[in-house]
Predict the structure of Beta-1,4-mannosyl-glycoprotein 4-beta-N-acetylglucosaminyltransferase.
Amino acid sequence: MSDGYYSNSKKCDDFCHKFCGEKTWAALNMSRVKCFLRGIELRTCFILFFLIPLFIVSTYLHGQKISYFLRPLWDSPPKPFHIIPHYYHENISMETQCKLHGWKIREFPRRVFDAVLFNNEVDILTLRWNELYPYISQFVLLESNSTFTGIPKRLIFAENRDKFKFVEPRLTYGMIRGRFKKGENPFVEEAYQRVALDQLLKIAGIEDDDLLIMSDADEIPSAHTVNLLRWCDDIPPILHLQLRNYMYSFEFYKDSNSWRASMHIYQMGKTRYAHYRQTDVMLADSGWHCSFCFRHISQFVFKMKAYSHCDRVRFSHYLDPKRIQDVICRGANLFDMLPEEYTFKEIIGKMGLIPHSYSAVHLPSYLLNHADEYRFLLPGNCKRDSNCSTCLVKQ
Ligand SMILES: *[C@@H]1O[C@H](CO)[C@@H](O)[C@H](O)[C@H]1NC(C)=O
Ligand SMILES: *[C@@H]1O[C@H](CO)[C@@H](O)[C@H](O)[C@H]1NC(C)=O
Ligand SMILES: *[C@@H]1O[C@H](CO)[C@@H](O)[C@H](O)[C@H]1NC(C)=O
């Protein structure tokens, strides 16, 4: 680009020199105007041949960044949640726990249904189901042979089903065929799959007053949170769960702003599976949201392509395994994006790398009990396998 600038400006100089240097009557009579004009010409050339192309190129390369950075100007933050303080210690009774939240204890716990749309998060699903296992009546899982973005996908859960034998008696599995509509907004396919999940919940036998967890597979409520909500009466009928946000593994703790997961007291004909904001109340510190917590680099690549925001893969080098590995180890952003925040203070505060965390305290118990197998999720183990035995995309 600097080359372009140089040659352009050189042409300009020649042009100006010729123009200003000619001893015409006009030049002689208007020597002051001449120099003034030369100034204009130079400035105009500079703008035409340097600033405008620079602006176009940088808008092309960084348009998304510019618009994210200016977000405080064009977008206002959503209404803040009303956050319910969360009280917990292993050594306090359920009665005391309920009481601390202003709730009463029930005579028997509610049944709990855990429903997820599955993409390719085999390892994180293992952590999730082991964490929740003691308290879940039915695990409901739906997978499609299409990603939200309409890419054909293998039925990863079906292929790995034998790894989940421990839930088999409590599992309702559904498969839905993709519609493969070209050029459609990914949110349409996502909505379609969520409607199918509503049907699957009915097949699983959900009834009024059962508890339903609505969350993505990688949004894991902690076991004690689910236990609290199934044992207490007078809990809000819909409650968002505030989760700790992690990226790539539990080494990179980002913030506590994950709010999409929610808990519902099921009402036939009224409760609809959703993943957006449904109420203003949220229970604090209710679990973990581990984004892109994959074992194999190929899973990152697949997820980046299958993601609803696949427009974020603006350059094919984003999918280069070497780059992805480097990004994971540094705590950088896979899509080279700015933080999605609503104030300049927060944007600037969160720019750059996610700091390393050395804490493995209060993580899912299955992870620590099987640390050897899941080492890649623990601090200090950012290197991933590049080869993947169960590669995901149909090539
Ligand atoms: C747990 O609670 C019991 C009774 O309240 C107490 O005797 C015991 O020391 C507590 N244990 C811990 C580890 O705090
Ligand atoms: C998706 O699954 C349906 C039903 O099993 C099947 O008919 C269809 O061919 C599959 N599509 C792809 C692209 O795998
Ligand atoms: C990659 O695959 C090869 C052959 O399948 C295997 O020998 C090697 O250990 C694998 N590498 C890693 C890092 O798992």
About this structure: The mean pLDDT is 86. The two ends are 37 Å apart (CA to CA). The chain has 13 helices and 14 strands.
